[in-house]
Every structure is written in structure tokens, then in C-alpha cells.
Specification:
CATH class: Mainly Alpha
Structural class: mainly alpha
CATH architecture: Up-down Bundle
Number of domains: 1
Organism: Flexivirga alba
Pfam families: Hemerythrin
Protein name: Hemerythrin domain-containing protein
Order of helices and strands: HHHHH
CATH topology: Four Helix Bundle (Hemerythrin (Met), subunit A)
Low-confidence stretches: none
Radius of gyration: 17 Å
Length: 139
């Protein structure tokens, strides 16, 4: 069995930084999914959907349980973000049902981008600072 050094485990501060960096990657993927050739948009959309799935899974394994275990900060902070994540899943499912390039598809992609942008902004303002504080040294 491979032994890992405890120092190899990322801190809450490092995880919060990684989540914020992923938000930037997701924003860039949305831009790419709306611009360029049809083929480029298709590749970018597939990347975007994989990024969203990976990102939310990572948050569900790290950020949300840690905040819940630590008391979660102000009432509803984590609950609001998790409700937004459920909405995002519904928007993605609807997007995947539509014909790429159709008016409805483009509108659904815009709705998804708006919801994800709102979620990331709120998360960076409320949830991630609380999460990062879990890894801050005590005074």
C-alpha cells in the first residue's frame, strides 16, 4: 500500500483557491462554447459540461461536508449553493435534450451561463471564505 505524507493533503485554503481557479476555467469554457466554428463550439461545450460535473462533484466531496461539519457559517449559505447546483443539473439536462445551434439551445446555454455565473459569484463571496477559514491558523 502506498503511503502518503499528510503534508500532501491540500488545505482548505488551497482547495478554495482551486475552486476559484476552476470557476475561471468554467467562464472561459462558456465563452468558447459560444464563439468560434461549430466544431470548436461543440468541443468547448463538451469540455464545459465535463468541467461542471467534475467541479460540482469535488465541491460535494470537500467544501459542503466540511462546512456542514463545522457548523456551516450563517444559516442557509451552503443550502443556497446546493439548491443552485440542483438547478444547474436541471439546466444541463434540458440543454442536452436540445439541438445544438438551435435558438432554444442557445437560450438554454445562456440561462445555464447566467445561473453558473451567479452561483460562482455567490460561492466566492460567501461559502469559500468560510471554507478557507477552516484551514487558517488559529490566533
Amino acid at each position: 500500500m502506498d503511503q502518503h505524507n499528510i503534508d500532501d493533503i491540500p488545505t482548505a485554503i488551497e482547495i478554495a483557491g482551486a475552486v476559484t481557479a476552476q470557476h475561471g476555467m468554467i467562464r472561459a469554457a462558456f465563452h468558447a462554447a459560444k464563439t468560434g466554428s461549430e466544431e470548436d463550439q461543440e468541443v468547448a461545450t463538451e469540455l464545459l459540461l465535463r468541467l461542471l460535473a467534475m467541479h460540482e462533484a469535488a465541491e460535494q466531496l470537500t467544501v459542503h461536508p466540511s462546512l456542514a461539519h463545522a457548523g456551516g457559517g450563517p444559516v442557509g449559505v451552503g443550502d443556497d449553493r446546493m439548491a443552485e447546483e440542483r438547478q444547474t443539473v436541471q439546466l444541463v439536462e434540458r440543454l442536452q435534450e436540445l439541438d445544438r445551434g438551435s435558438y432554444e439551445y442557445n437560450m438554454q446555454l445562456a440561462l445555464l451561463e447566467e445561473a453558473v455565473t451567479h452561483h460562482a459569484t455567490a460561492e466566492e463571496a460567501s461559502e469559500l471564505p468560510l471554507f478557507a477559514d477552516l484551514g487558517a491558523p488559529s490566533d
